[in-house]
Amino acid sequence: MYEKTLHIRQIYKGRVVTLQELDVELENGVCSKREIIRHHGAVAVLAKLPDGPFIFVKQFRKPVEQERIEVVAGTLEKGEHPEDCARRELSEETGYEAVSMVHLGAVYPSPGYVDERIEVFYAALNNEPHAVRLDHDEHVQPQIFTHEKIIEMIRQGIIRDSKTLATWLLYEKKIEA
User: Fold this and answer.
1) What is the rounded distance in angstroms from the CA atom of residue 118 to the CA atom of residue 41?
2) Residues 100, 20 share a domain
3) Of 1, 17, 60, 98, which sits most exposed with the smallest number of CB within 10 A?
4) What is the pLDDT of residues 44-91, one digit of tens each?
5) Which positions ≥6 away from 110 have C-beta within 8 Å?
6) How many CA atoms lie within 13 A of 134 on its CB side?
7) Which domain holds residue 33?
8) Are the C-beta atoms of residues 146 and 53 closer than 8 Å to each other?
9) β-strand partners of 12
10) Model pTM greater than 0.90?
11) What is the DSSP letter of 105?
């Protein structure tokens, strides 16, 4: 299957995303419109302490008007390598440094309307955190959970963030397997 792009209109360009409206032609000749959010990518990191528990973060997410429990994550800076971004975000949001970092894969959280690609990592951490260094407009609280507690929060619907669920699944299938 394929859709031929006939015309692109830029509706909005912001700091993190660009919104475009595309005129497309489907394989059967029918013309349609697509609204696409362009995003330059992100990372997600499942971080584990040496003694077994995991570090997640709690933060308020304005689009859903709720505090959410999520894996560490952040947007790639222009030209930044995903692992470098993952290490930077981990250090900034939790105060921990990764002893080792394993790339688990990549996910597209909602490819029906956004091209965002999230590179997913597993990080084994050191024992000695430093102070967190959050961006001026960021309020994130590190949270420590056992494996069992994470499974319970997934079952109860407390963890509902797609990148966090995808990261956990990749971890279970590639690291715990």
Assistant:
1) 6
2) no
3) 1
4) 999 999 999 999 999 999 999 999 999 999 999 999 999 999 999 999
5) 116, 162
6) 12
7) 3-38
8) yes
9) 19
10) yes
11) E
Mutual angle of helices 147-155 and 162-174, in 10-degree steps: 130
Residue 63 exposed, middle or buried by CB count within 10 Å (0-12, 13-18, 19+)? exposed
122 within domain boundaries: yes
User: Which two three-digit tokens encode residue 60?
Assistant: 């308020």
Tokens 């995808």 belong to: 166
Length of the chain: 177
Take residue 165 and report the two structure tokens written for it: 């669920």
Q: pLDDT tens digits for 95-142? A: 999 999 999 999 999 999 999 999 999 999 987 776 666 667 778 899
Is residue 112 a part of any domain in this protein? Answer: no
Task: Judge whether 81 lies within some domain.
Answer: yes
Confirm whether 64 is domain-assigned: yes
